[in-house]
Amino acid sequence: MTTQDERFITRDRMRFIKNSQSSNLCYLGILFDVLYFVNIYRSDVGTYYYNVSIGISIVYNLIFLLAAFLASEGVKNYKKSYSYALFVIGAIQFARIFYIPMKAHSATTVVNDVAVKVMGDGQFMKVVAYLALSGAALLIAGFINMKKCNELEEHLKSIGEQAA
Q1: What does the alpha-carbon distance between residue 23 and residue 14 come to, in Å, rounded to a whole number?
Q2: Residue 144: CB partners within 8 Å, gap ≥ 6?
Q3: Which positions ≥6 away from 27 have C-beta within 8 Å?
Q4: pLDDT tens sequence across 19-37
Q5: Which of 21, 97, 132, 160 is most exposed by smallest CB count within 10 Å?
Q6: How far is CA 20 from the centre of its chain?
Q7: Strand partners, 115
């Protein structure tokens, strides 16, 4: 069997198998977001985290989890539009680094009449890593799905079928 035949077979198989690589990367992005979520919200530093911005962050996290899961299901079936959704939510994960983690890292609060740093360097590095890894996993999932969708569309055109 030639290399060209193997490539044809690999592309033809895409019509019948799921895009598990992109889907699994979406799940990984969700996992890292959950680790971020737990790390931030288990912090008990006085009343610093009891404000509207944390409430908005919690609502966003719920929306993110739903959107990322929906995208993971969409990319399984080689839907190109979900790549764009992954690009957006992946980029937002990187932007979130500059919201709560940066603010909390540079803030202090008073607990028992003692000034305490809200987020230490170790926790800051962890939450930044979680958000960056989550964003990277989603962006990579989007790029892989886009590439595979283009390959599948090209293959379907070559055999005279139309993409669904």
Answers
A1: 14
A2: 19, 21, 22, 25
A3: 72
A4: 899 999 999 999 999 999 9
A5: 160
A6: 15
A7: 110
Locate 31 and state its tokens.
């996992």
Give the pLDDT of residue 71: 97
Q: Give phi and psi for 115, each to the nearest 5.
A: -75, 125
Closest CA to 136 of 104, 81, 92: 92
C-alpha torsion angle, residues 150, 155, 157, 162 (rounded to 10): -80
For the record, the structure tokens of 25 come out as: 């990367």
The model's pTM: 0.89
Distances in Å between the Cα of 91 and the Cα atoms of 7, 47, 144 are 33, 30, 16
CB-side neighbour CA atoms (13 Å) of 153: 10
**Side chain identity at 66, as an amino acid letter?**
L
Which residues of the chain, if any, have pLDDT below 70?
1, 162-164
